[in-house]
């Protein structure tokens, strides 16, 4: 009986332990890479973490904050004038939020955040996409990456 328990323990530790080492803990961060590989200086980052908002604080929600640097002018993609952060758990839910430029004249940094996420952050695709602020039309992604698990 003891050898059986030892073998079971060894088997479970080799199966379960690698799964746990691949799980990210909050806060999670990822580098957002350009979809167009010719945009060599264009990069971004996404930070995902729990926040408690209000007074008194409400239950914990998840925040996603996105930063994009050296992004091309949105109009280079067509009838677009801004950028939006876009995050999705495919076939479940998505969030989009405006990003705002810093005051630099050339190549401003774009940043934005969304604080009201209650879903589990598993297999989340994060993107920076061009947007038309008047028509609210969302264009193609410029930066993207995926977070497998963030808990």
Write up this protein.
With 151 residues, the protein is mainly β. The protein has a single domain, classed as Immunoglobulin-like (Sandwich). The protein is 13% helix and 50% strand. It has one helix and eight strands. The protein has an eight-stranded antiparallel β-barrel with strand order 1-2-3-6-5-4-7-8. The chain is globular.
Question: How are the elements arranged and paired?
Answer:
Elements: H1 2-21, E1 28-34, E2 43-51, E3 61-69, E4 82-89, E5 93-101, E6 110-117, E7 121-132, E8 137-150
Antiparallel strand pairs: 1-2, 1-8, 2-3, 3-6, 4-5, 4-7, 5-6, 7-8
Order of helices and strands: HEEEEEEEE
Number of domains: 1
**Total number of helical segments?**
1
Q: How far is the N terminus from the C terminus?
A: 37 Å
Quick summary of this structure?
This protein has one helix at 2-21, and strands spanning 28-34, 43-51, 61-69, 82-89, 93-101, 110-117, 121-132, 137-150.
């Amino acid at each position: 009986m003891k050898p059986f328990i030892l073998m079971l323990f060894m088997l479970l530790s080799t199966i379960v332990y690698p799964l746990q080492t691949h799980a990210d803990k909050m806060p999670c961060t990822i580098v957002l890479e350009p979809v167009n590989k010719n945009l060599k200086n264009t990069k971004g980052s996404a930070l995902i973490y729990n926040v408690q908002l209000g007074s008194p604080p409400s239950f914990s929600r998840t925040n996603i904050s996105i930063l994009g640097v050296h992004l091309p002018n949105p109009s280079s993609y067509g009838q677009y004038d801004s950028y939006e952060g876009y995050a999705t758990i495919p076939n479940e839910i998505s969030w989009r939020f405006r990003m705002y430029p810093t005051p630099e004249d050339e190549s401003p940094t774009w940043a934005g955040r969304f604080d009201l996420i209650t879903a589990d952050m598993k297999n989340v695709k994060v993107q920076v996409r061009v947007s038309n602020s008047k028509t609210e039309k969302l264009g193609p992604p410029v930066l993207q990456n995926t977070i497998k698990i963030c808990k």
